[in-house]
Design a protein that fits this description.
This protein has 75 residues and is mainly alpha-helical. It is built from four helices and no strands. The longest helix is centred in the N-terminal third of the chain and has 19 residues. The radius of gyration is 14 Å and the shape is globular.
């Protein structure tokens, strides 16, 4: 019986990506620091996993967030 309709590994990766979204939006830290903080030991694996789920790289996502925040502050 699959309650979560996903594997434990996929659940863990999805959880880590979700946590990384919070960090990408709150702090101007490096992608490497965020990857390590959410449990990825391999930065390229983090970037690949993030892009697979979000259709964008973590750096591009972070840039979009900060550009949006800056645009709001300029108003």
């Amino acid at each position: 019986m699959q309650v979560l309709q996903t594997t434990p590994y996929e659940y863990l990766i999805n959880y880590r990506i979700k946590k990384s979204l919070e960090l990408l939006g709150k702090e101007k830290t490096t992608i490497s620091q965020i990857a390590l903080e959410v449990g990825f030991n391999d930065i390229s694996h983090f970037i690949q996993s993030f892009k697979k789920r979000m259709s964008i790289t973590p750096k591009h996502y972070q840039k979009q967030l900060f550009n949006h925040q800056n645009n709001i502050q300029d108003i």
